[in-house]
Task: structure prediction
Amino acid sequence: MLLHYLLPPCSRNPTYDSLLKKDILFISDLHLSLEKTEITRRFSTFLKQRAVSAKALYILGDLFDAWIGDDDNTPPNKTIKKALRQLADSGTEIFLLQGNRDFLLGQDFCKETGITLLDEYAVITLNGNPTLLTHGDLLCSDDLPYQAFRIKSHSPEWQRNVLSKPLLLRLLAARWYRFRSYFHKRNKTQEIMDVSQQTVIDVMQQYRCRTLIHGHTHRPALHEFEIDGQAARRLVLADWKKEGAEILCWNGNDWRVEKI
Result:
């Protein structure tokens, strides 16, 4: 890595830099919005100072607190798009999973930022081992009202109807949804809003993975258990707060949590 910094700026290029990048970073649940200026500032700094030295960045959902269409360039969206494009142009690959707050993120956003959009379940290989990625909301299978809404809101008809509305109307609807969601959560138990262990096992068996990474629950932890007599683990990413943030890093051999 020392050679990277000895090179004069004019001789560096994304292709060469990408050969020196090894770390793979995972983040989730930033919930960027106009009101959360400190988190937006921290994310911009993270992209410029930490992510730029990584081989890949995986954003596992809820990058934004609400996303009402790829045509929305209200603050801070335009600034974030530009910062992501700069990171992609530096040679760092960026992958994104939709969350329960930004499931309307589409291909226009990805083309503009250089991001690759992944399916709701994605398998990547780390050191020869398949690793399953997901946002985490699908694992909360005991929350039946939410799962019913998720099915409806992910239908092409529902999304076409929403995206056909004027931008101002969508912005107002998003604010109402966040307000309504806040009060609905207050009436749910902590168990309902957490993942179902049986669903976790079923999904990991389906995708033949022994490592699962997700966010959504805002309960960062490492859970170790067994599946069919074999060791398995579930790594839960932390949500970003005004006071600070955490990222999960795979350095090619092991995991570590980095605080920002």
In short: The longest helix spans residues 167-186. The chain is about 35% helix and 20% strand. The radius of gyration is 19 Å. The chain has one domain: 17-259.
